[in-house]
Structure formats: structure tokens, C-alpha cells
Design a protein that fits this description.
Structural class: alpha+beta
Number of helices: 5
Number of strands: 13
Distance between the termini: 52 Å
Radius of gyration: 20 Å
Oligomer: single chain
């Protein structure tokens, strides 16, 4: 009888643990996400593409490419970037209109925001989150990165002995961890010190760049920009249909 009672207690404990976990992480098409209670309803994946745990760095991808280092791409540069002809001046897809770019270049960031400039975003066929994970998964927009940064408390900390940022929702207290995975060319640079996460949004002022979430121990920039050809991390999102 005591053995049976013990098993019942173990079963109840496991049920409570699983119930508690489900309040924070749920599954979509085989991948977990966290509801941070964001105004947009955006749901964030618990880990990077290619990672097997939240603190894992995962794979690295150039912007608009759906095959990364783990798929056999050994280096990341303009010479082997699939959306250009060997140079940042010979980009073949996703271009900023030059006249508009000149006009936009004269605006401050606040004026740019007030102007509500239409942004160029990756098509689904070039969105690695959608291609790799399927379903409703997508790479985040730069607006979703800004929302994440604005609606969460941020802490530079470690998880499984890896540095990164813990984002804690101001609304419901749920958390999400972004490891500082650096970026990749032939080797990985700045791992453990810097994080570079692609958005799906082209840089408004220059066709050779795209918006990223960038961070180091000093803080987070939710709207930085970097060259499209380099290998960077990707953290997918799901956009709740309204």
C-alpha cells in the first residue's frame, strides 16, 4: 500500500511539474514557444534554429538564405552570398529604392518612425524559420524585436554557463533567454560576448544591410543593422492571427 501511495505522489508531482511548464512553454509544429503577453500577441520560440536547448547557440545563416553552416556552408561573405553576384553592389533580390533611400537617409530615427516608411521583408521562401520549422513560424520583424525590448525587463546573465540576455515579461513574468552566440564567417567571432539575431526586415537606408537584434553586456539594440552576407543566429516567432 505504501508503495502505491508513493507512486501516486510521484505521479502527482510530475503532473504539477508538467502543468507548470506548459504555462510557460507550449508546442507548435514540434517546437516550443513562450507567451510573453505582448501587445501584438507574438509568441517567441524558446530556442534558436539548430539548437537543442534554450542556451544553445544553434546554427548560423546569412540573411535571406535557408541553408546555414550546419547544412554545409563553410564561410559567409559577399563572394558566396546567394542573393548577390559576388559583391554588396551587385545584390539581386530585396533592394531599397535608391531615390527613397536618399530621402530616408536624411531622416532621424524618430522622423523615420513618424514617417511610417514601408519596409521590405523576406518572402516566405527566403525565410529560414518558415522553411526549416514550417507551420506559422517566421523570422521576427524589427518591430517585433522593438516590442520584445520595450515590453520586457532585460538581464545580462548566464544559463548553462553561457552568457546572454534573459528577457522577462513585464506583463506575466514569463521569460526567454537569448545566448550570445556571436557571428560566423569561416570561424565564430565574439561568442559569449555579443549576440546578433536576424530580423526578416531589410535595412531601410541601404540594400546591403538588414535589421538585427544586437546586444552585449552593456545593453540591447533592437534595431541595429549589419551586412546581409554574414552568418548570424535566428530566433523564430509565431504571429497570432487576429
Amino acid at each position: 500500500m505504501r508503495h502505491f501511495t508513493f507512486l501516486k505522489k510521484i505521479g502527482l508531482a510530475l503532473f504539477l511539474i508538467n502543468s507548470f511548464s506548459c504555462a510557460y512553454a507550449q508546442d507548435a509544429n514540434g517546437h516550443e514557444y513562450v507567451d510573453l503577453g505582448l501587445p501584438s500577441g507574438t509568441l517567441w520560440a524558446t530556442m534558436n534554429i539548430g539548437a537543442i536547448k534554450p542556451a544553445g547557440y544553434g546554427d548560423y545563416f546569412a540573411w535571406g538564405e535557408t541553408s546555414g553552416y550546419e547544412d554545409g556552408k563553410e564561410s559567409f561573405s559577399w563572394k558566396n552570398y546567394s542573393l548577390s553576384k559576388g559583391s554588396q553592389t551587385k545584390i539581386t533580390k530585396y533592394l531599397v529604392d535608391r531615390k527613397k533611400a536618399r530621402e530616408i537617409s536624411l531622416l532621424t530615427e524618430q522622423q523615420l518612425k513618424d514617417a511610417n516608411v514601408e519596409e521590405v521583408e523576406l518572402e516566405l521562401e527566403d525565410d529560414v524559420a518558415h522553411v526549416k520549422w514550417g507551420g506559422d513560424w517566421r523570422m521576427p520583424s524589427t518591430a517585433q524585436f522593438r516590442e520584445l525590448n520595450n515590453e520586457c525587463q532585460r538581464e545580462w546573465t548566464t544559463q548553462n554557463n553561457r552568457w546572454g540576455y534573459l528577457f522577462t515579461s513585464k506583463t506575466n513574468g514569463n521569460t526567454i533567454f537569448f545566448p550570445a552566440g556571436g557571428f560566423r564567417d569561416k570561424i565564430i567571432y565574439n561568442v559569449g560576448a555579443y549576440g546578433y539575431y536576424w530580423s526578416r526586415t531589410l535595412y531601410t537606408r541601404y540594400s546591403g544591410g538588414a535589421f538585427i537584434l544586437y546586444f552585449d553586456s552593456n545593453g540591447v539594440n533592437a534595431a541595429d543593422n549589419q551586412y546581409r552576407c554574414f552568418g548570424r543566429s535566428v530566433r523564430p516567432v509565431i504571429e497570432v492571427k487576429k
